Amino acid sequence: MRVGIVGGGQLARMMMESASALGIQCVLLAESESDAATQFCTEVIIGSPHDPTAMQSLADRCDVVTFDHELVDLEILAELAASGTLVRPRPTSLLFAVDKAAMRVTLGASGLPMPRFVLVEPGTDADLGALGDDLGWPVVIKAARGGYDGRGVYIVDDPNEAARVVAELHAHNTTALLEERVVIISELAALVARNPSGDFVTWPVVETAQVGGVCREVLVPGSVSPELEARARSIAERVADVVGVEGVMAVELFETSEGLVINELAMRPHNSGHWTQDGSVTSQFQNHLRSVLDLPLGSTEMTAAHVASVNVFGSDTPFDLDDGLPTALLNAEAHVHLYGKSSRPGRKLGHVTATGADALEVRRQAWKSAIALGTPVPDQIREVQP
After folding, report:
1. For 21, phi and psi rounded to 5 degrees?
2. Are 191 and 309 within one domain?
3. Is a pLDDT exceeding 70 seen at residue 48?
4. In this predicted model, what pLDDT tens digit does every residue of 329-369 receive, in sequence order?
5. pTM score
6. Which residues contact 109 (CB under 8 A, 6 or more apart)?
7. In terms of domains, do 272 and 345 share one?
8. What pLDDT does 146 receive?
């Protein structure tokens, strides 16, 4: 079995680790020879997912095409699928991760909970003041396509600022998605996997901490009560049915005083699921491969009562990961995963996961090794004492 992966980042790299355990071969479409996954793949195509020739070359060498990111061309994927290539998730499903406007409209029509929103298409003249008054200032404006890790998301306080942001998006022929700014109690993620035969599994719902739109830590179960978990899982299962996902999908959720609302979708392994490598019977990466190859799915049961996973980021101070690794590995309770990247400020370099019986202790141990690897503790993260 040969799986083609669009993208050469750390998600592709970790998919390949799981592929090796199952005897699955991977073919990689990477944009650079220095991408994180290229170091361990024997068959790499250097090219862009927006290049039909490169995409066809990938399709010709594998049994199924899947993804490490959503920055893809849906028209090229639709043409590949129409000519017989197995693309999983299908382009019609992937649309809802690529296009936030399509996601909002479709899920909203299905009665799924979301913030109130308005779409402002390029070429239209909208009364942004009136729209903002209706949604309530400040308003969140998102680029319908192309944003990730907090990019393409703007919080605006008045009509003039809104007009500037919308004009900038329209100049790039991008729809502006205006949303009410909800008061967030906590941020959650529900991870599911579904194969074409209809097998379906969900992992425990996790609590995430986002700083600047980027995930810094994941706690399982964190502050998620059994009742909240049941509601979040139910929403994720309904989303999976509506969009017809094949593979792993993450549903990012906000807990608000009015209940849960959907933030965004990702249709591939997700940062909120990295903990599954060490804290679940079957990782998100292996179940994603099983899903896209239509193999039986593995158990998602936790292997410990509590799991904490902390992302490792480059700091403003020059730091060599090789120097910090011995200290990080002295912590026997932590599992270190590095992505083969050189350190620079703000760059995601890896993650550390700890498992155990005590929630505070596993969080402390995960941060202990992450700090040893040079990652700074953001001010927004509640106090940790490694």
Report:
1. -65, -25
2. yes
3. yes
4. 998 889 999 999 988 899 999 999 999 999 999 999 999 99
5. 0.96
6. none
7. yes
8. 86
Instruction: Measure the CA–CA gap between 292 and 275, rounded to whole angstroms.
Output: 21
Can you give the CATH number for the domain in which 36 is found?
3.40.50.20
* Closest CA relative to residue 18, chosen from 302, 280, 216, 311: 280
User: What gap in Å lies between CA 159 and CA 165, rounded to an integer?
Assistant: 10
Distance, CA of 383 to CA of 386 (rounded, Å): 10
| Domain count across the chain | 3
Buried b (16+ CB within 10 A) or exposed e, 351-374: bbbbbbeebeebbbbbbbbbbbbb
Question: Please, which pLDDT band fits residue 54 given cuts at 50, 70 and 90?
Answer: very high
Residue 151: give the domain boundaries.
116-180
| 349 and 214 inside one domain | yes
Q: Considering the chain, what is the average pLDDT of its residues? A: 95
Do 65 and 4 meet the contact criterion of CB atoms below 8 Å apart?
A: yes
Q: Are strands 186-194 and 247-256 parallel, antiparallel or unpaired?
A: antiparallel
* CA 262 – CA 253 distance, rounded (Å): 5
335 inside domain: yes
Strands 247-256 and 259-266: antiparallel
Cβ atoms 130, 256 nearer than 8 A: no
Is 108 part of any domain?
Answer: no
What pLDDT score does 318 carry? 86
Whole-angstrom distance, CA of residue 205 vs CA of residue 196: 23
3-class secondary-structure state, position 176: strand
Interatomic CA distance for residues 178 and 158, integer angstroms:
13
Q: What is the pLDDT of residue 382?
A: 66
pLDDT at 186: 96
* One-letter-per-residue 3-state SS of 232-298: HHHHHHHHHHHHCCCEEEEEEEEEECCEEEEEEEECCCCHHHCCHHHHECCCHHHHHHHHHCCCCCC
Rounded Cα–Cα distance for residues 68 and 9 (Å): 7
**Can you give the pLDDT at residue 384?**
64
d(CA 146, CA 38): 24
Q: Helix 74-82 vs helix 91-98: angle between axes, to the nearest 10 degrees?
A: 170
